Amino acid sequence: QVQLVESGGGLVQPGGSLRLSCAASGLFSDYYAIGWFRQVPGKEREGVSCISNYDGRTYYEDSVKGRFTISRDNAKNTVYLQMNSLKPEDTAIYYCAADFTLITAQPMCVSIPDYWGQGTQVTVSS
Question: pLDDT digits over 47-62, tens only?
Answer without folding.
Answer: 999 999 999 999 999 9
